[in-house]
Amino acid sequence: ASVAEGHTLEMEFRIERGQGYRAVERGHDETAALDFMQIDAIFMPVRKVNYTVEDVMVGGSLQKDRLTIEVLTNGSLTPQQAMSDAASILVSLFNPLKDVTLEPKPDEEAKEEDPTNHIPIEELQLSVRAYNCLKRAQVNSVADLLDFTQEDLLEIKNFGQKSAEEVIEALQQRLGITLPAEKSAKPS
């Protein structure tokens, strides 16, 4: 501030502790006088963080990674304290996840149990015509094919009886899977 000769500038500061960033909440601080000027507060002592990951040989043959972290602070706490505080925050954030038990949805569980679901249709060694028709119908794996009945196969564009029989035979011989002949009646 520039002060003219013969005048004085008098200020009082309020210094607080906190975390992160706190914006001024205008009209919410009853302790503030009319001549009190509030400013946003930044409680971030860490100014800059750099890290590098290097390959390190341990015991001559075991390769591991070395993490080097450079922490620069404003001096209100040491880099070691900043790392310790950051680790504590991470632990408290992830701690609730350690006892979580995840149960797959019933549909997903059934599909994941059968490894044949992930087999691409290329491995069925179909004729070019049958393969191309299935690809155009967005059938890419055995799991996709199992959504069809023998009746549904005949509804695929340019997919005739001979191609349907070829697919049914390939599924039966290579994987022991039989497609249902027609859709089962829905219970009413």
Properties at a glance:
188 residues, alpha+beta, DNA polymerase, domain 1, 4 strands, 30% helix
Secondary-structure map with pairings?
Elements: E1 20-22, E2 41-43, E3 46-58, E4 62-73, H1 79-94, H2 106-113, H3 128-136, H4 142-145, H5 150-153, H6 161-175
Antiparallel strand pairs: 1-2, 3-4
Structure in words:
- The chain is α+β, with helices and mostly antiparallel strands and 188 residues long.
- Among the domains are: 46-87, no CATH class; 107-175, 5' to 3' exonuclease, C-terminal subdomain (DNA polymerase, domain 1, Orthogonal Bundle).
- It is built from six helices and four strands.
- The protein has helices spanning 79-94, 106-113, 128-136, 142-145, 150-153, 161-175; strands at residues 20-22, 41-43, 46-58, 62-73.
- Strand 3 (46-58) and strand 4 form a beta hairpin.
- The chain is elongated and about 105 Å long.
- The mean pLDDT is 83.
Describe this structure in a few short sentences.
The chain is of the alpha+beta class and 188 residues long. The protein contains six helices and four strands; from the N terminus they run E-E-E-E-H-H-H-H-H-H.
SSE string, helix = H, strand = E? EEEEHHHHHH
Number of helices, where a helix is a run of at least 4 consecutive DSSP H or I residues:
6
What does the main sheet amount to? 2 strands, antiparallel
CATH architecture level-2 label of the domain at 107-175: Orthogonal Bundle
> What is the alpha-carbon Rg in Å?
34 Å
Q: Which range best describes the helical content: under 10%, 10-25%, 25-40%, 40-55%, 55-70% or over 70%? A: 25-40%
CATH topology of the domain at 107-175: DNA polymerase, domain 1
| Mean pLDDT score | 83
State the strand order across the main sheet: 1-2
Overall geometric form: elongated
> How many beta-strand segments?
4
Beta-strand percent range? 15-25%
CATH class of the domain at 107-175: Mainly Alpha
